[in-house]
Design brief:
475 residues, mainly alpha, 3-stranded antiparallel β-sheet, 16 helices, elongated
């Protein structure tokens, strides 16, 4: 072990004299710091803006004058998706999904105003965030720093000298690996400080930043082991560099870009136009509440009359129009939810297809882990949409209930003449998003973490084979 430490110290001393390595590490640290402060400021500004808009629309809803309840159903309401604290580290899919939902009766709208649709196309190639720096740029730095770690010793002839002096191949490899892990730790340190800063400045659970830090630590260990193994395998440093750059281009750039396209072509989502046509067809099949001869709503009317023991809707103790609105909303909401669930399930199936590519590229597993811990993955977006839909349903049904209880059937002739007090709007539209508990997020992190550990174990085995080959080649 002392020999390995001595080799690591010598390697660090060599790297300190290498201006390219020092400059590259300094630039990476600077990029991480700039990305952290920029992403944090952008997240803080965006979250404050959404909170301000939410307060504004809540105030406008509550200050509406006396109206007919069904007018308020169509007046609608807006809800805005709050940002997770760790979104400053990894924004995930937040730039591609909408953050504003318009809630109204008889419809389930999709979220709008995604950042990608409002920004330049350059945003599609990745934002400058700490996650992007660690996922894409940090491995590149490790490649340029460590590609010649063992190939250089073989080219210069010092490897034979070390072996002749009794230093074992595994000690040499361990020393080189330890030195490169030191560079990886230095590259990871600003990100760890950023996670600690975000955790201290926000009420984010401590387990999630720890999971993210551990995932990125394993990610850089994977690259360190792979770089040292490739350097041990090739006899010249430039050959090792070309091979490592090819591996980086395929695993970090090509596969993550190609995997979603393959999954989308294999499990294509229906277009918005196709979905609208299908929904309209199913809505027509449900029945028409405005048609007195409609079979379903004629049966509903008989059921209501029998429930209250009367023969005419005029004799009901409640407004039949309000009951009709509540029943129609129940039917249409169930239909909308069925289509929404089918869409999310198809997207989840696509993601499972993409997850299969993690066996070809560990960055696929890393991104899944990072987004799940940061709360910026598909499951968290779905959680917001589903909570907003439940809120919409409660809001509309409460307004329908007010129509049923506060207005008489005989007097409910027009929305202009029949109104109730604006005091009924207070507190009805308040929306509070509940984030997923940390245990649920950690459960989604576990499979991706397992894939990363599998990659690390596999590369450790390959590094062992390269070490044995190193001893045989130099004899």
């Amino acid at each position: 072990m002392s020999a390995a430490l001595h080799i690591a110290r010598e390697e660090w001393r060599l790297l300190r004299r290498d201006r390219v390595a020092v400059l590259g590490l300094a630039l990476l640290l600077l990029l991480t710091a700039v990305a952290t402060f920029t992403a944090w400021e952008q997240r803080r500004t965006t979250d404050a803006e959404r909170a301000r808009h939410q307060a504004q629309v809540d105030h406008e809803f509550e200050t509406q004058p006396d109206r007919h309840p069904h007018r308020m159903v169509h007046y609608g309401h807006f809800v805005f998706r709050p940002l997770n604290p760790l979104a400053a580290f990894d924004p995930g899919i937040d730039a591609y999904t909408g953050h504003t939902l318009f809630l109204e009766g008889h419809r389930q709208n999709s979220a709008n105003f995604g950042d990608v649709r409002q920004s330049s196309l350059l945003l599609r190639f990745g934002q400058l965030t700490p996650a992007f720096v660690l996922q894409v740029l940090a491995p590149l730095l490790l490649i340029f720093v460590g590609h010649a770690a063992l190939a250089r010793e073989r080219e210069s002839g010092t490897l034979r000298v070390l072996l002749a002096q009794g230093v074992r191949p595994r000690q040499i490899v361990a020393g080189k690996l330890l030195a490169l892990c030191g560079v990886a730790a230095a590259a990871l340190l600003p990100a760890l400080l950023a996670l600690l800063w975000i955790g201290a400045a926000t009420p984010a659970p401590a387990s999630l930043p720890v999971a993210m830090a551990a995932g990125y630590g394993v990610w850089l260990l994977i690259w360190a082991a792979g770089i040292v193994g490739v350097s041990a395998w090739f006899g010249r440093g430039r050959d090792a560099l070309v091979a490592l750059l090819a591996l980086w281009a395929v695993s970090v750039v090509l596969v993550p870009r190609l995997a979603p396209e393959i999954a989308a072509s294999a499990l294509a989502l229906p277009t918005r136009f196709e979905t609208d046509i299908a929904v309209a067809r199913d809505l027509a099949a449900l029945g028409d509440s405005h048609d007195p001869d409609d079979p379903y709503f004629a049966g509903f009317k008989k059921k209501v009359l029998a429930q209250y023991g009367v023969s005419r809707v005029e004799d009901l103790p409640v407004n039949y129009k309000g009951l009709l609105g509540m029943e129609g909303e129940r039917l249409t909401s169930a239909l909308f939810q069925r289509y929404a669930d089918a869409g999310f399930e198809r997207q989840a199936a696509q993601l499972r297809r993409v997850d299969g590519f993690a066996l070809l590229s560990p960055v696929v597993a890393l991104r899944r882990l990072s987004m799940a811990a940061a709360g910026t993955d598909l499951e968290n977006y779905r959680r917001f949409v589903e909570q907003a839909e439940r809120h919409r349903y409660r809001l509309v049904q409460e307004l329908n209930r007010l129509q049923a209880e506060k207005l008489s059937f005989a007097g409910d002739r027009s929305s202009r003449d029949s109104r109730i007090s604006h005091a009924h709007w207070h507190g009805v539209a308040d929306f509070r998003y509940e984030a997923a508990p940390p245990v649920e997020a950690l459960r989604r992190v576990a499979p991706a973490a397992g894939v990363l550990l599998l990659w690390l174990a596999m590369l450790a085995g390959l590094l062992g084979l390269a070490t044995r080959r190193l001893g045989r080649v130099t004899r």
